Structures are given as structure tokens and as C-alpha cells.
Amino acid sequence: AQKVTQAQTEISVVEKEDVTLDCVYETRDTTYYLFWYKQPPSGELVFLIRRNSFDEQNEISGRYSWNFQKSTSSFNFTITASQVVDSAVYFCALSEAKRETSGSRLTFGEGTQLTVNP
Amino acid sequence: DAGVIQSPRHEVTEMGQEVTLRCKPISGHDYLFWYRQTMMRGLELLIYFNNNVPIDDSGMPEDRFSAKMPNASFSTLKIQPSEPRDSAVYFCASSLLGNQPQHFGDGTRLSIL
B99: nearest CA in chain A? Predict the structure, then answer.
């Protein structure tokens, strides 16, 4: 069975601080996909990134960066120079699928509530 | 392009009433997913469809819940009869292919009194 753990329930930082959100996953499959979603106070779920299990290259998108390490089954998310607008719940998710075209369940972690204070 | 559209945004009804939630996926997306979000259980998948066919409904809580997708542009999630423990935010999502990113609607906040 697959499982996603986000051990940090809540994180509070001051604006301009860097913050890392941890995500640890469990799966028996060699082929899988990892995702991060953002849920701002307005409630919608916003897709941030997808990674497949064969691509361990770290990714940077503006102030966001992701560190994928298969050796530790982790897919951590760092926000550099945080801003108040980054305040949200962030979810890490995992899907197991043999092929790009096959459907699969998304298993979500419990989420991390990030509060960025001015 | 329009995103996933859900209706209603909010629903308040009394226990025992039938509730119907609606979803219009992004045009061209072959997969449609229904999720429920609660404080106790977090985000959980209820059911998903591929090309209008239900593929995995193992997350549907019980027989009171049913979902249909009569065509590629419309899906419903029905609860009959509703109970207070069904109160939650229900999300619909769609994706182009199975493991492509899922795009979520704004959700329906359901309160059963």
C-alpha cells in the first residue's frame, strides 16, 4: 500500500525566511509519480509540480524548489524568501501507475499549514 | 480555458434529503475524479472515471453514495439519504491522462444538519 507522510502539521515563519516542507512516501512500485498541491485559504487546490520516479533531478521554479531523493523516499519542497501570499496548506501526493496512460489513485499526505507572517 | 466547474459551491440541507453535486471537467480530459476533504480523514479519493466509465469506486463510503458520468462533459455525485457525517468539501478533478496533473474545481462545501 502506498502512503505519504507530511510530519510537519504547521509551520510559521516570518516573511523573507526560507522554509522547507517535508514529504516522505512509501510505495512498493518502481514506477510512480509525486505531486505537490497548494490549498490557499480560499479553498481551491492548485497544482504545483509533478515528478516521476525516474527523474531525480531537482527542480527550481522562481522561489520554489523541489528536492527528490529516492534513497530516502523524500520529495521536499522549499520556498525561498517566503511571502505572505505563500500562506496556505501544502499537500504532497503519490500515485502508482505502470504507464503514463493508466489511471491511478492519488494518495495525499495530511498537509502542512504554512503561515507566513509580515 | 475554463477550468473544472463544480456546482453548487455551498449546499446546506437536512439529514435524510437527497444531495446531488455536479461537475463539468476540462474539455478533452479523459479522467474525472471525485474527492472528499474532511478534517478527520483529509483528502480521500471516492471514485474515478476514464472515458465516462467508472474504474475504481473502492473509496465510495457506502451504498448511499453513487456517481455517474453520462457523457464526457458532465458527472454527478449523489448522496441519498444524506447524514450529518457526510458534511465535507467535495472536490471534482480532471486530467488529460491517468498520471497527468489533476486539475481541481473549487469544491462544494456540503453541510448536513
Answer: A100
Average model confidence (pLDDT) for chain A? 92
Mutation test of the interface with chain B: which of A101, A102, A110, A112, choosing the one with the most B Cβ atoms within 10 A?
A101
- Assess contact for A94 and A107: CB atoms under 8 A: yes
Cis bond leading into B8, ω under 30°?
yes
Are the C-beta atoms of B92 and B46 separated by less than 8 Å?
Answer: no
Reading the block at residue B70, the C-alpha cell is 453520462
pLDDT in tens, A41-88: 999 999 999 998 988 888 888 999 999 999 999 999 999 999 999 999
Chain B CB contacts of A102 below 8 Å? 98-99
Instruction: Enter the C-alpha cell of residue B36.
Output: 472528499
The separation between CA B4 and the C-alpha centre of its own chain, rounded to angstroms, equals 11
Residue with cell 478533478: B93
- The 8-class DSSP code of residue A10 comes to E
Whole-number Å distance between alpha carbons of A36 and A92: 5
Cα nearest neighbour of B6 on chain A: A44
**Secondary structure class of B57 (helix, strand, coil):** coil
